[in-house]
Each structure stands twice: as structure tokens, then as C-alpha cells.
Amino acid sequence: MDAVTLTAAERLLLTRVLDLRLSLSRKSTPMLQPLSFYSSELKGTKQIAGTLDAVATTGKLADDKTSRDRYFNSLSNQGLVDGSSLSPKLTPLADFYLSAWNTDKSDTFWRGAGGNAVELNVIRALVDQMRSGNLVSDVFKLVWFNAQTFFDNVPPPALAEVLPYPMRLLALFRINSHGWEIARYFRLSADERAQFDEAFAKVRPSDQWTPSKQIETAAAQYKDAARTIQADVRFRISGFLNAFDQLRTDLGADLPRLDRQLVLRSSTSAGAGAKKLGSNGGVSLGTGSLPHPHQLIVTGCPGSGKSYYVDQLIQSTGCTVFRTQFHPESSFFDFVGAYKPQPVYEAVDPAHQLEEGDGKRFGRGRPIIDYRFVPGPLTSGLAHALANPNENVVVLIEEINRGNAAAIFGDTLQLLDRDETGASRYGVTASPDIRSYFAGIGQPLETIRLPGNLYLWATMNSADQGVFPLDTAFRRRWNYVYKGYTEPCLYPEELARIRYADQVYPWDVFRRALNDKLVELGIHEDKLIGPYFLTSDQLRNPESILEKLFLYLWDDVLRFRQDSLFTKKSFSLVGALWTNGAGSPLQLTLSSPIAEPVVAEPGEEPFDSQSPSAGQVAQA
Predict the structure, then answer these.
(1) Distance CA 464, CA 620 (A)
(2) Is 162 found in the same domain as 35?
(3) In angstroms, rounded to a whole number, what is the distance separating the alpha carbons of residues 101 and 88?
(4) Where is the composition biased (Polar residues) (predicted)?
(5) What is 580-595 written as a DSSP string?
(6) 373 φ/ψ angles, rounded to the nearest 5 degrees
(7) Which residues fall within 8 angstroms of residue 615, CB to CB, at 6 or more apart?
(8) Cβ contacts of residue 104 below 8 Å, gap of 6+?
(9) CB 371 within 8 A of CB 340
(10) Rounded to 5 degrees, what angle do the CA atoms 23, 24, 25 make?
């Protein structure tokens, strides 16, 4: 086996980009997310053109059944054939390939601008079908979504550095298992990206070396996934991404966007000539809709960075935000608005002044109770979005399931069904108090509809204590982002450490061993330990580890079954055994302690400008 030696700095860079656990295929093998139509059966556009020509000439795909089925699936996914593998029928899209094939059969043509031009024509036609509501394959929609994510994540100045170069695109593809690795890569500085490239180049597939660190094992699995695909994929990736880029220019506001469920949701922008919904309460859409779902719930285990993730979305989009937090006493009237008592004061005769109970003069006049409509965050956000159609507005709900969400939303749940423009598909008749409020601010409203520039985003932890379940009707109207316990902690390596049993371990190593044990015990993953469950300061404080981590495990995670993890029968005895990190109160098997002590001092700034701060993400 080749010897591979990575420095601590190189391992940290790998951690900042790669995930510790890759996406898996149906065969449970590490998988990369597709960025092209590449398939192992028909790898290049030249092979596709030749196969289509054979179908046009002979009516057959191949002699043996396995090849026939695989070829048919590959071509069908691209919209080039229909029928069956025994009786394939060429679609009109095949003419793009056949016309070029009859003109030029050279490798130079099909691996260069010629092949890219053919694929652009096919992709353009598939996009037109998708925009028209006609069926396209899930394979195409997945690749389109991944290309969409690619352009969301690569800064415009960097596009010129990667789009013209197939090998650069191939390098990005080789780290694209979940879809967010490319975004992490471009959060690094240019120098850090170069250092990451050098570090990742050292990594070997898992059968060629023996990694000693968790991140090294994960990096080797990325190499395992990459070597299952021939390097010719670079031409297909280049063709697809450059086609997407061309369509961004050609279609502009009409470029379709898919959500994570591969459902067509909205265009990149509604454009200056956006539809106006008229006097029934609608409004023209904004001219710069966000590349994110209109209803989004970020969920995950404690300390997984949910609130930080949403804050990053908001900061990156420059939205106007109306924040609220649900709790057991939250009601429809808190969220939407209600008439509430408001004191007003009537002037009194100076000769007959009012007095307080203690005899002091009361100088504000005779109190009278008036009733006024006080808008809730949903109404305030709606009013702002209607008044500013070119501005994106977010109503942010923290801990959405700590209140009875279905009751809090009430009939406004109907508004969460959005059309392709992002506006509410169905309206709700405005109540008299809502109509009166909007009339008072100069926005007459008879029917309520959420405009396309109004977004509802939320956070939740479904397995926490004291939470309400979300029913199916409510859940299906939202998109979800899961922030899991397997994501790496992005604290600097010298701060992401914990002292246990008088040894120092990487926090991710300790956390992985602990979470693996909890999974063995059947604990739901929403109760596992996220990367930011403890701040970097708390990791260096044994009392914080005892009071926050161990007590959470004792009271919340393993209530009535603490002996399945803890070695002591009471939490008092756990504390006595812990003795500032010298004891081992958990039934854990740990390896690879760090020889050197923790060197960072309390109060030291642990993050650069590109990384989440401990205060921002811990306890999210």
C-alpha cells in the first residue's frame, strides 16, 4: 500500500469541504451526485449518436437483453427514445443527434463544441417540455437540480475559472456526494482551495492505504466513488453545465427551478412584466425571487446548526425578516393578528386633576380603553411584501413545532399551496378586521394570497421534549433541509477537542463513538449529538460537559435506561467519577487520543470570517 501522510492542517481543510459520510447508492456504495447525462452504458455523445443511428437503420438497440435494457434506459432518460427495449422508437429529439452524426463522426467533433451544441439543443427541448408541464425523466430533473445547485454555489467570478475547463469540472464532480461540498469548497479562500486540492490529491482509494483519521476514511471513500466513473465524464459534465449556463442567458427570468423533491416550483425571477393578481388582494411578483423554497423547515438534532443555517440563507439573500417563535401558548391571533386593548387618555379640567392611589398627581388624563388591530408577524410580513413587490420578505418561525402549528396557522394553511410563480394558488377571504387593517394602511384587500416575494422559513427538532406533531396536510406543504449529526464540526482542529478519561480526543471522534452507541441503543437520530452541541469554550470546560452533555444524555435521551450508557447508578456518582475530565462515566470504546494538550486559551477567537462562530451555531 502507498504511504499517505496528511498534516493536521490538510485534514482540517478536508473536513471543511468533505462530509464524514457519503451519499449511498441503492447498493449501499459511496455515490457522487450526477452533473451530466453520463451513464456507464453510453458514456459519450458519440456513442449515443452511433446507437441512435443503429436504431434508425436496424430498429434494434443490441443483441443481448442486458445491453438492450441498459441502452434503452440511458436513451429514454434523455428523452431520445420511447417504446420498449425490444421495439425502441426514436423521438424528435433524436434528430439533433442523427443530423450531426450524418455530418461528422470524428472524435474531435463529438468531444468538443459539436457534441456540446447537440446536447444543448436536447437540453433546451427538455427544458421547454418541463416548463410546459410535460413529462420529463427524473434523471433529467435530478441533473437539472444539481446543475442549478452548482450555479447557486459557485461565485460568478469563479465560474470563468472552471466552466471552460473540463478537468476542473471533473475535480468538482469528484467531491460532489451530497451537493453541498462544492459550496463549502468555494467558501475557502483561493489559497485554501489550492491547499485543499493538494491534500485531496494525496488521498488514495480505501484499498490502497490505511487511513488513521475519520476524515481520511471519508476522503478515501470519495476517491472510491470517483474511480467507478471513467474520466470521460468530464466532457459530459462540461456539456451539461455549459448548456445550463447558456440557458440562464437565453431564458433569464423564465429559467425553471426545481425543489429538492424535483418538483417545478418557480422561475429564477418573475421579471418586470410579472402577472398582477388584481384587486382581490394579489400583487405583482418581485423581480429577483430566491433560489430557495417558499416554505422551508430546517430540522435536525440538537446542536446541528439549524438556526445558523437559516441565518446564513437570510444574510446571503438580503431579505427583510419578521421573526417569531412558537410556544405552547401561541395562537392564530398571535401569528395573524387580533384586536387588543389599547389605553388612550382624555384631557381633564386642570382644576380637577386625577390622582394616583398614593395621592400623586396623574398627568396623562382620564384613561379610556380603545381596541385596535395589532398585526402578527404573518400579517406584518404580508403587508411589507405587498408594499414592496421588488423586495424579498421572510417570516422566520423558530421552533415551529413547540406550538400547535395547524391551529396557529388556521385557515391560512390554505395559502401555503403555491403556483409556479410562487403566489398562493388559492385565496382566503379576508376577515373584517384584516380588511380594515389593510384599508387603513392603503392596501385594500378582499382576498388574501401570499405573493411570490413572501417566504416562510422555520426551524424545528421533532424529537425534543414538549413538541407538537405536524400532521400530514401541514407537512406536505413544506420543503425540508435536514442538518444531521454526521456533519463535521468546523471549529478549528485545536479547539474541536474534548478531554475524557484524562485523554484528549477530537470532538468528532468522541461524538461519533457516542452517537454510534446511541444508535445501537435505538435512539432516534433527532436526539443524537450535533457538531455544535457544545461551544468551543464549553468543550474546554469539564463542568460544562457534565452539566450540558452528560445531563442531557441522562435526563432527556436515556431517561429510565441510563445504565445502558452510564457506568454509575446516579448522576451524583457520575459527577463524582467525572472529576474534571479524569473519569470515564460512559460505556464507550475510544481510540486515537491526541498526544498534545489543548493549547487554545479561553476567549481566543476560534473562527475565520468564512466559518460559523461557536456562539452562532452552538445549541441551535
Answers:
(1) 12
(2) yes
(3) 19
(4) 608-620
(5) GGTS--B-------BS
(6) -80, 125
(7) 535
(8) 110, 114
(9) yes
(10) 130
Q: Is residue 259 part of a domain?
A: no
Task: Give the long-range contacts of residues 574-578, CB within 8 A, separation 24 or more.
Answer: 574/546, 574/550, 575/546, 578/542, 578/545, 578/546, 578/550
Question: Given the DSSP bridges, would you call strands 479-483 and 295-300 parallel, antiparallel or unpaired?
Answer: parallel
Question: Count H helices, E strands: the chain?
Answer: 25, 17
Q: How much of the chain, in percent, has pLDDT values that exceed 70?
A: 91
Q: Is there a single domain that holds both residue 345 and residue 285?
A: no
Name the nearest CA neighbour of 491 among 527, 526, 538.
Answer: 538
**Parent domain of 111:** 8-245
Q: What is the distance, to the nearest Å, from the Cα of residue 201 to the centroid of all Cα atoms in its chain?
A: 28
Q: Based on the fold, state whether residues 473 and 590 are members of the same structural domain.
A: no
In a domain, 488, yes or no: no
Domain closes at, from 349, 372, 395: 372
How many domains, in total, are found in the chain?
Answer: 4
CB of 465 within 8 A of CB of 401? Answer: no
Q: How far apart are CA 582 and CA 562, in angstroms?
A: 21
Q: What SS3 string covers 484-525?
A: CCCCCCCCCCCCCEEEECCEEEEHHHHHHHHHHHHHHCCCCH
Report the CATH number at residue 472: 3.40.50.300
Question: Is the separation of the CB atoms in 594 and 510 below 8 Å?
Answer: no
Q: How far apart are the C-alpha atoms of 375 and 101, rounded to whole Å? A: 65
Q: Half-sphere exposure of 311 toward its Cβ, with a 13 Å CA cutoff?
A: 11
The three grid cell numbers given for residue 215, joined into one nine-digit string: 476524515
Indicate whether 265 belongs to any domain.
no
Tell me: do 588 and 449 sit in the same domain: no
> The C-alpha cell of 472 is what?
400530514
Q: Specify whether 50 is located in the same domain as 165.
A: yes
> Which contacts qualify for 160-169: CB closer than 8 Å, 24 or more apart?
163/238, 163/241, 163/242, 163/245, 166/234, 166/235, 166/237, 166/238, 167/234, 169/35, 169/234, 169/237, 169/238, 169/241
Q: What is the 3 state secondary structure string of 338-384?
A: EEEEEEEEECCCHHHCEECCCCCEECCCEEEEEEEEEECHHHHHHHH
605 Cβ neighbours under 8 A, 6+ residues apart: none
152 in the same domain as 77: yes
Residue 585, all three cell numbers: 462515566
DSSP output for 149-185: HHHHHS-HHHHHHHTT-HHHHHHHHTT-SSS-HHHHH
**pLDDT digit string, tens, across residues 410-433:** 999 999 999 888 899 999 999 999
Q: Is 322:394 a contact under the CB 8 Å cutoff? A: yes
C-beta atoms surrounding 587 within 10 Å: 11
In a domain, 489, yes or no: no
Q: How far is CA 238 from CA 56, 412, 524, in A?
A: 28, 45, 41
Asked whether residue 360 falls in the same domain as residue 445, the answer is: no
* Residues 116 and 36 sit within 8 Å (Cβ to Cβ): no
My answer on whether 317 and 188 are in the same domain is no
For 544-596, how does the pLDDT look when each residue is reduced to its tens digit (9 = 90+)? Answer: 999 999 999 999 999 889 999 999 999 999 999 999 899 999 999 998 888 75
Q: Which carries the bigger pLDDT value, residue 399 or residue 266?
A: 399
Asked if residue 270 lies in contact with residue 416, where contact means CB atoms within 8 angstroms, the answer is no
